[in-house]
Amino acid sequence: MRIQLAQRSEADELLGRSPLALLVGMLLDQQIPMEWAFTGPYTISQRLGRDLTAQEIASYDPEAFVALLAEKPAVHRYPKSMAGRVQQLAAYLVEHYDGQPEKIWAGVADGKELLKRLMALPGYGKQKAQIFLALLGKQLGVQPSGWREAAGLYGEEGSHRSVADVVDADSLSLVRATKQEAKQAAKSR
User: Fold this and answer.
1) Which residues are within 8 A (CB) of 33 and not within 5 positions of it... i.e. 6 or more apart?
2) What is the 3-state secondary structure (H, E, C) of 100-129?
3) What gap in Å lies between CA 155 and CA 164, rounded to an integer?
4) 178 or 42, greater pLDDT
């Protein structure tokens, strides 16, 4: 299945072939539109002139990396804090997974273990980890036993709760509608 989270073919192509880009996009997916977040890894790679590697990001001069993300158009609404988070994520991947994010899910025993590994990533709380786990299961075929249960509501088949369920423009509209309904329900309580 082709990733379509950025809704831009060149950015989505990068997300589909680079686990690091997908992890970074998920990290950036807060307080900005999903498409902007998932275009971020493509923008960073274009500014670097090559695909992202955890080693390069982790060792990049922090001030220069902030400047890279802040360059117009900015990669995120908060380029300074997000640059730091992206570098922390990259450093963690270098230290624990030899800079290869796919090792997070390769050979994992079950969904609980995968969720635990994802929650250990800098910038990934339980909800973000569950959404990413659902994305791995639903769109990339990473389906260790119990993955749906570990992903919680995000793992439900046929749901439209998160980026894990976005496969085209129509499903993106459904996810946005579901989020609006949830916000309205929360306000009326």
Assistant:
1) none
2) CHHHHCCCCCCHHHHHHHHHCCCCCCHHHH
3) 8
4) 42
Closest Cα partner for 114 from 85, 88, 91, 148? 148
Phi-psi region of 141 (alpha: psi -120 to 50; beta: other; left: phi over 0): left
pTM of the predicted structure, to 2 decimals: 0.94
- For residues 89 and 24, the answer to whether their CB atoms sit within 8 Å is yes
Task: Find out whether 22 and 89 touch, Cβ atoms under 8 Å.
Answer: no
Rounded distance, CA 91 to CA 97, Å?
A: 10
Whether residue 35 contacts residue 168, with contact meaning beta carbons closer than 8 Å, is answered with no
Short-list 103, 155, 107, CA closest to 129: 155
For 38-89, what is each residue's pLDDT tens digit? 999 999 999 999 999 999 999 999 999 999 999 999 999 999 999 999 999 9
